[in-house]
TrEMBL record:
This is Putative phytanoyl-dioxygenase protein. It holds the Pfam family PhyH. It comes from Botryosphaeria parva (strain UCR-NP2) (Grapevine canker fungus). It comes from the Eukaryota. SUPFAM superfamilies: Clavaminate synthase-like. Keywords: Dioxygenase, Oxidoreductase.
Length: 236
């Protein structure tokens, strides 16, 4: 049976609590990380870029029904994501750069990683959008293939984990969002027999949680937690 996690408080946990939650559960959900002004600014910028992407005026997109790259640049069959937010051709690149490099998110990242500004290496910054048709991602770990044997899976997970952590990944919600589904604690162990036997798009896995996010919430997670995405066509 799936459970849902919801939060309403805006208090950011202490650095030690953030790290403990990430180590134990594989994710940490922070409510109301964005201010109302930040949320409004990002909503406007993302709406403009998404409109351009759906119209074929922005070629850097994630297209249906593909989960993994490469993606074609033609939005004919619909999109579920927009890429390259910091590209200089994007009129709102400065808005996205401010959200990416600003203290709001970076403060949490530095707490999780116990790192300073000069120790960070920034990678991908992309936008997931309401798909043009029902769309789901399969259960996966980002850096461990689904066909990995249990011993290899454990070895890869151990190699990827560090103390302090060496990698931070996050989802930042601009609207109410229920797309991220995780299996808490799975980042630190091999899959169970039931998880291995489950179908790629299995609706229910024992202990899974739907991470329910409100506008402005942020969830940081280990990219090797067992997770999937379920995108509702009625969401913005």
């Amino acid at each position: 049976m799936a459970t849902e996690t919801t939060t309403t408080t805006s208090t950011i946990p202490s650095p030690s609590s953030l790290r403990a939650s990430l180590a134990r559960d594989g994710f940490v959900h922070i409510p109301s990380l964005l201010s109302a002004d930040q949320l409004s600014t990002l909503r406007s910028a993302t709406a403009e870029l998404t409109t351009a992407a759906r119209a074929g005026a922005w070629p850097y997109i994630r297209t249906l029904p593909k989960q993994f790259p490469p993606w074609p640049s033609d939005p004919l069959h619909g999109i579920w994501g927009v890429q390259h937010l910091l590209h200089p051709a994007n009129p709102s690149a400065g808005v996205f750069a401010a959200s990416y490099f600003g203290d709001t998110v970076m403060g949490v990242c530095k707490s999780l990683l116990r790192a300073g500004d000069d120790e960070l290496v920034m990678e991908l910054y992309n936008l997931l959008v309401r798909p043009d048709a029902a769309f789901e991602l399969r259960w996966h770990r980002d850096d461990v293939p689904a066909d990995a044997a249990p011993a290899d899976e454990v070895a890869r997970l151990r190699a990827a984990r560090g103390e302090p952590p060496v990698f931070a990944q996050w989802n930042l919600a601009l609207f109410e969002d229920r797309s991220l589904v995780v299996v808490p604690g799975s980042h630190a162990r091999a899959r169970t027999e039931a998880e291995r036997a489950a179908g790629p798009w299995e609706k229910e896995i024992e202990g899974m949680k739907v991470v329910v996010m409100q506008p402005g919430d942020c969830v940081f997670y280990d990219n090797n937690i067992l997770h999937r995405g379920v995108y509702n066509v009625t969401n913005p």
